[in-house]
Amino acid sequence: TTVGNLRNITIRNGSVRNWGDEGVDLGTISAENSAVIDVRASGNAGSGIASGGSSTVTGCSALSNTGDGITTGFGSTVTGCTARFNLSDGISAGPGSTVTGCTAGSNTGDGITAGDGSTVTGCTARFNDGDGIEVSSDCRVTDNTCDGNGNDGGNGAGIHVTGSGN
Fold first, then answer.
1. Is the pLDDT of residue 41 over 90?
2. Which of 18, 27, 29, 93 is the least crowded, having the fewest Cβ atoms under 10 Å away?
3. Distance (Å, whole) CA 16 – CA 4
């Protein structure tokens, strides 16, 4: 059974580890306008934290998940989060999102990715196998630190822009 049309869900203060899929899964049920606050997600068989559009993810950490550490839908905000040792991207934000003050390191994919029209500021991306930060079109990327990315044979950039108007 699929649950749909859920909104305004808040998950706060907790730890989710070693689940057979996503640790926190608000993304596949498209739970919009939700919040995930101060949650630790580790060792899950999918993404550590997945949220729907217009969501907020604050003060969370995602460690050693087999998918993305943290993934959000359109128009979301990710603030003060850490994503390390995930087997895909550390933080993957949907179009029109803001990623601020986050750290992404030693992920198998990119450290931080953001869709069209997003802002990535004040973040640190180090030792990811792919790019440190990857954005597409019409994005703003400022005041970030990117170091030692491209551990997959040197093919990663500190900041990789794939579109125009940035």
1. yes
2. 18
3. 23
